Amino acid sequence: MLLRRIVVWSAGISVLLAAVITTSITVGPAEISLLESMLAVLNGFALPMVVDGSLRWVRPFTFDVSETTETIIWSVRLPRILLGAIVGFALASAGTVMQGFFRNPMADPSIIGVSTGAAVGAVAYIVSPVVIPYGLPAAAFFGALLAGFGVYLIATEDGRTPVATLLLAGVAVQTFLGAVISYLLLGAGNNLEQAIYWLMGHLHASTWGKVRLIFPIVVVLFVFLLAYTRDLNVMLLGEDDARTLGIDVERTRRVLLAGASVTTAAAVAVSGVIGFVGLIVPHILRLLVGPDHRILLPTSALAGAVFLVATDTVARMGPGEVPVGIITAALGAPFFLYLLRRREVHAL
């Protein structure tokens, strides 16, 4: 019964994701019809085939599509859409785990300072004279990891990490890192606009390189977190009951915290700080599919991909592009306030 529910819900959301991606491909400054977009996508596919006795990658489709259209689809739109789907997938996955970890639907991936740490690393790189390949996402990634694991070390005492202490340590570290960001922005000079734009959260500079960089990390971490969904379910009962049922609470906490933190770090490193995806999406899916993380985690992850691709599509509409972080906040905050007014937000 559970497996059937997982398959049905995941398949349904996957179909929705495919529909959103298909629609998103047609949106942009250059007007390209849906048919042209699909033909350009098919033209770009290559399959391994044996040619003259050797294995080569061959493109089986040669539809009549202009080179400009193919360049726009494959070099600009598809990398951005796929990167958005991966980032949304990662943020929603991390948000689901964090809400279960803290047993609070108000929790999100940034609660222990991971996003703020990434912001410090990114802004520090932007204002510095150093320029290296993938230097910005690398700086953001390591800044996120240092912040997340720093909060964990601060909150840990005698081998135990109380959730309340972890939360308070996260708030304190976020406040301090916020001051560091403000100080760095004061000396940003000509790089101020770039730094602020990054802090808003965006998918503007998406490339296939970033897609290849983040995709395997997110997939591996998702499978890793999926293996702990049963333990996460048991931990919702409380520490004492979890220990009684054979769960090593402290070890499980460390594993879940590390997995969610690294997942968030990978996402934020390539997109900037995009809020509300990891907060709103898991909460909505919890209302739809229930609190069992074995179904909640995969469905939330897919829904996160749908949400971010859809909001980025909205961000690309109109004469001027808007950072997607602004759109997610504009949609997420009022909806969450609506849930609060409806008394739909409960402790887990």
From TrEMBL:
TM segment ranges: 6-27, 39-58, 78-98, 110-128, 134-154, 166-188, 208-228, 255-281, 293-310, 322-340
Chief place where the protein resides: membrane
A Pfam family this chain is assigned to: FecCD
InterPro entries named in the record: ABC_BtuC-like, ABC_transptr_permease_BtuC
Keyword Glycosyltransferase: no
Domain of life: Archaea
Membrane topology classification: Multi-pass membrane protein
Single GO molecular function: transmembrane transporter activity
Gene Ontology annotations for the cellular component aspect, listed alphabetically: plasma membrane
Subcellular localization, as worded in the UniProt entry: Cell membrane
Alphabetical keyword list: Cell membrane, Membrane, Transmembrane, Transmembrane helix, Transport
Protein family according to the UniProt entry: Belongs to the binding-protein-dependent transport system permease family. FecCD subfamily.
PANTHER family: ABC TRANSPORTER PERMEASE PROTEIN MJ0876-RELATED, FERRIC ENTEROBACTIN TRANSPORT SYSTEM PERMEASE PROTEIN
Binding partners and assembly: The complex is composed of two ATP-binding proteins (BtuD), two transmembrane proteins (BtuC) and a solute-binding protein (BtuF).
UniProt function note: Required for corrinoid utilization. Probably part of the ABC transporter complex BtuCDF involved in cobalamin (vitamin B12) import. Probably involved in the translocation of the substrate across the membrane.
Name of the protein described by the UniProt record: Cobalamin import system permease protein BtuC
The organism of origin for this protein: Natronomonas aquatica
